[in-house]
Design goal:
heterodimer; A: about 110 residues; mainly beta; 4-stranded antiparallel sheet; about 50% strand; B: 5-stranded antiparallel sheet
Chain lengths: ~110, ~110
């Protein structure tokens, strides 16, 4: 079965640079979520989109923005990168949100130097 | 804010042993989920629970939704080496319109030396 696709899998950036992470949800899933996971930490919710509209916002810094496009893929844009932004970034998708069943992608490992 | 208290933090298993872990919260949740994460990979959904008192199985895994809706338990029977990894409990949080997941800190399963 098709899973969530994330690209790139690994990204190395320098401080103050920008980064764009992409997420392609499971076909027919209409909701996308972004999570950040620091080393040895649990995933922390950043932001979500339902039917191309932002639906919920978590602990996402103002330097980050995201959107969901007409084909339901989503992009997380990160500017003025800081060392503390180094983490695994996961995208998850679901069909609506009533069941809570979110399916995670393999993640993008961002390293800021 | 809302948080999930997951225990134990880590445990060692010997092949064939049964394993138990749990998650508690001071808040009521209507959906509990259990995920497994391997190093550098995304969390994989194991079991989702929707009803207080519900007991659900997935192969050797059995999870229960506590009657108070403030806790959940995961049991793994007859553990095998591939059970090694980090297990996260998660609860569906309707802070906004669509809901997002909050996670416990994880239980790390390792093989007994």
């Amino acid at each position: 079965a098709a899973g969530v696709i994330q690209s790139p899998r690994h990204l190395i950036k320098e401080k103050r640079e920008t980064a764009t992470l992409k997420c392609y949800p499971i076909p027919r899933h209409d909701t996308v979520y972004w999570y950040q996971q620091g080393p040895g930490q649990d995933p922390q919710f950043l932001i979500s989109f339902y039917e191309k509209m932002q639906s919920d916002k978590g602990s996402i810094p103002d330097r980050f923005s995201a959107q969901q496009f007409s084909d339901y893929h989503s992009e997380l844009n990160m500017s003025s990168l800081e060392l503390g932004d180094s983490a695994l970034y996961f995208c998850a998708s679901s069909l609506g949100s009533a069941t809570g069943e979110q399916y995670f992608g393999p993640g993008t490992r961002l390293t800021v130097t | 804010g809302q948080q999930l208290n997951q225990s134990p933090q880590s445990m060692f298993i010997q092949e064939g042993e049964d394993v138990s872990m749990n998650c508690t919260s001071s808040s009521i949740f209507n959906t509990w989920l259990w995920y497994k994460q391997d190093p550098g990979e995304g969390p994989v959904l194991l079991i989702a629970l929707y009803k207080a008192g519900e007991l659900t199985s997935n192969g050797r895994l059995t999870a229960q939704f506590g009657i108070t809706r403030k806790d959940s338990f995961l049991n793994i029977s007859a553990s095998i080496p591939s059970d090694v990894g980090i297990y996260f409990c998660a609860a569906l949080n309707y802070g906004g319109s669509q809901g997002n997941l909050i996670f416990g800190k994880g239980t790390k399963l390792s093989v007994k030396p």
